[in-house]
């Protein structure tokens, strides 16, 4: 199973094992990583599962489009490498991916 | 106030949130989370859409895996509370055990309003509330040829969209004159009427049913108010819910369309809070009128508010209500409460099904409904949460852009 690293804004790193087909948001929630709220449970309705994807991994992801792209405009402290983790589906290719969490989701 | 023990009745979205937020805030006492459904606490919104379609599995419905509750020392109990003993601050469980509390949180939710016609007990007639309902319904929905949906609210229409996409002929009966009338403006209702029509759903307004017809205990049809017989091998109803107030009522707490709470979400007993679908609270966005909201946002934010108060940070509940529904390829997101609106400004194009409706009462913007315009929704949530106010005149100007206005008026 692919392993991801999620780094909280305060620097605390969490190694998270995800299942193929699961979203990064859900893997993070299941591993109780603080800093992701995901109020809507993954329906892409709330923009509170925002994370920054490390550049080397960003290119391996399909680009944000449609709803996610539109919602991302309103993520707090949005950056070029911002993504909504409920829309990132875990695959073998993402084994080792590093994501950093913003200071706040609101 | 030292709290050695918090007992939460109801393990839905609101109850789960209190437990989680208490631990996140460093609460070290005992947390008991009591739910009467089997299995781990789960999300309900996908039950009438993504889960029914098999787009997400049972594991993905869960808020957290089992080890979370052990690690966080959240005592999950599959049981039913039969009474609240307020004098001795304890709840009595069906199993006979009594559980002491320093603070009690009632998050008992609501149950489906039953279909009030003869034949409602026939096999093949469903409400959707629990995972068990969805698990029973899913295989039937895949086989159904003729589906009758009673009620054109969120749940009814979400299911109608699912059923038609699975190849059924779908007929929706609605007593009102438009879909989702309780929740959205006429303009948004119209957009969804057109969409369902396009998908092949037959919407029948100002129409109820007088009975469900069956053979050998199974549904075969319904009779409409105007006397027509519609074939049906599956009937799904979504005609509102009734708050689960019995426990609170028997304990002598104030009840008024739900469990009555103050701005801090406290019931008439200061050792008992009520939150989520069951709580009737003075709603800031509804002129502080007693209001009961059935939504994920309300459950989550009220759960957080109570946890913060128990941790010594009381604040009146004032979160902006927001809602969503996914039907076919249409995502509707609503910020604020539109009841009592007297004018609207429409942004976008109905033809592309990308539309936002701004609802005003007098000069005040009270709600924004966005279909397939999620950026507008998030902008609206910011605009509705703080000054300055957007006037109807500004909104009606040619080329008005909600996101640009929000950005320009950010402090």
What does it look like?
The complex is a heterodimer of chains A (106) and B (411). Chain A is globular and about 30 Å long. Chain A is built from 3 helices and 5 strands. Chain A has helices spanning 24-30, 55-58, 66-72; strands spanning 3-7, 13-17, 50-53, 82-84, 98-100. Chain A has one domain: Ubiquitin-like (UB roll) (Roll), CATH 3.10.20. With 106 residues, chain A is of the alpha+beta class. Chain B has 3 domains: 5-111 and 242-310, FAD/NAD(P)-binding domain, CATH 3.50.50.60; 114-239, FAD/NAD(P)-binding domain (3-Layer(bba) Sandwich); 329-408, Enolase-like, domain 1, CATH 3.30.390.30. Chain B is globular and about 60 Å long. By secondary structure, chain B is of the alpha/beta class. Chain B has 10 helices and 26 strands. The model of chain B has no long low-confidence stretch (mean pLDDT 96). In chain B, helix 8 (374-385) packs parallel to helix 10 (402-408). Chain A binds chain B through residues 22, 26, 29-30, 32, 34, 39-45, 47, 67, 70-71, 73-74, and chain B through 24, 43, 45-46, 50, 56, 60, 63-65, 68, 71-72, 296-297, 300, 324, 326, 331, 333, 372-375, 377-379, 382, 403.
Which helices and strands appear, and what pairs or packs with what?
The complex is a heterodimer of chains A (106) and B (411).
Chain A lengths: L2 E5 L5 E5 L6 H7 L19 E4 L1 H4 L7 H7 L9 E3 L13 E3 L6
Parallel strand pairs in A: 1-5
Antiparallel strand pairs in A: 1-2, 3-4, 3-5
Chain B lengths: L4 E5 L3 H12 L5 E6 L30 H6 L2 E5 L2 E5 L4 E4 L4 E3 L2 E4 L3 E3 L12 E3 L3 H13 L2 E5 L3 H12 L3 E5 L12 H14 L2 E3 L4 E7 L2 E7 L4 E3 L2 E4 L3 E3 L2 H5 L8 E2 L11 E3 L4 E5 L5 E3 L4 H15 L11 E6 L2 E7 L6 E7 L4 E8 L2 E8 L2 H12 L6 H5 L5 H7 L3
Parallel strand pairs in B: 1-2, 1-7, 2-3, 7-19, 9-16, 10-11, 10-16, 11-12, 18-20
Antiparallel strand pairs in B: 4-5, 5-6, 8-17, 13-14, 14-15, 20-21, 22-23, 23-26, 24-25, 25-26
């Amino acid at each position: 199973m692919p392993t991801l690293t999620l780094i909280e804004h305060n620097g605390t790193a969490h190694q998270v094992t995800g299942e193929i087909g699961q979203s990064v948001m859900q893997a993070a929630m299941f591993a109780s990583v603080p800093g992701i709220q995901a109020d809507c449970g993954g329906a892409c309705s709330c923009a509170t599962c925002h994370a920054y994807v490390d550049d080397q991994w960003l290119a391996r992801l399909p680009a944000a489009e449609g709803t996610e792209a539109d919602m991302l405009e309103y993520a707090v402290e949005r950056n070029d490498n911002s993504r909504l983790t409920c829309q990132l589906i875990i695959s073998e290719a993402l084994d080792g991916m590093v994501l950093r969490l913003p200071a706040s989701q609101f | 106030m030292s709290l050695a023990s918090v007992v939460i009745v109801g393990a839905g979205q609101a109850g789960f949130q209190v437990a989680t937020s208490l631990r996140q805030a460093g609460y070290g006492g005992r947390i008991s989370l009591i739910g009467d459904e089997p299995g781990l606490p789960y999300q309900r919104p996908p039950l009438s859409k993504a889960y029914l379609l098999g787009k997400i599995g049972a594991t993905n419905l869960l808020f957290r895996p089992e080890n979370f509750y052990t690690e966080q020392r959240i005592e999950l109990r599959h049981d039913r509370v039969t009474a609240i003993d307020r004098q001795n601050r304890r709840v009595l469980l069906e199993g006979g055990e009594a559980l002491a509390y320093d603070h009690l949180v009632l998050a008992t939710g609501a149950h489906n309003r039953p279909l009030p016609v003869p034949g409602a007990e026939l096999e093949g007639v469903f409400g959707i509330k629990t995972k068990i309902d969805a698990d029973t319904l899913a295989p039937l929905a895949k086989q159904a040829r003729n589906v009758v949906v009673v009620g054109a609210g969120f749940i009814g229409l979400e299911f109608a969209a699912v059923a038609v996409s699975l190849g059924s002929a779908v007929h929706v009966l609605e007593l009102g004159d438009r879909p989702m009338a309780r929740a959205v403006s006429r303009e948004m209702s119209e957009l969804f009427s057109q969409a369902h029509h396009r998908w092949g759903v037959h919407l029948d307004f100002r129409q109820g049913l007088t009975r469900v017809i069956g053979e050998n205990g199974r549904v075969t049809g319904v009779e409409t108010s105007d006397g027509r017989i519609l074939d049906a091998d599956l009937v799904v109803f979504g005609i509102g819910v009734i708050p689960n107030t019995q426990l609170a009522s028997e304990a002598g707490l104030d009840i008024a369309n739900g469990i009555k709470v103050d701005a801090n979400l406290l019931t008439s007993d200061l050792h008992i809070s009520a939150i989520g679908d069951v709580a009737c609270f003075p709603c800031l966005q509804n002129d502080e009128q007693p209001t009961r909201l059935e939504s994920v946002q309300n459950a989550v934010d009220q759960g957080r508010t109570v946890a913060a108060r128990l941790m010594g940070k009381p604040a009146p509940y004032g979160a902006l209500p927001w809602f969503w529904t996914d039907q076919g390829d249409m995502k509707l997101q609503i910020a604020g409460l539109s009841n009592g609106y007297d004018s609207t400004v429409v942004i976008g194009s109905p033809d592309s099904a990308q539309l936002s409706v701004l609802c005003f009462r007098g000069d005040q913007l009270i709600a924004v409904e966005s279909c397939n315009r999620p950026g507008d929704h998030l902008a609206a949530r910011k605009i509705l949460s703080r000054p300055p106010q957007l006037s109807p005149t500004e909104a009606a100007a040619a080329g008005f852009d909600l996101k640009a206005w929000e950005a320009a008026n950010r402090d």
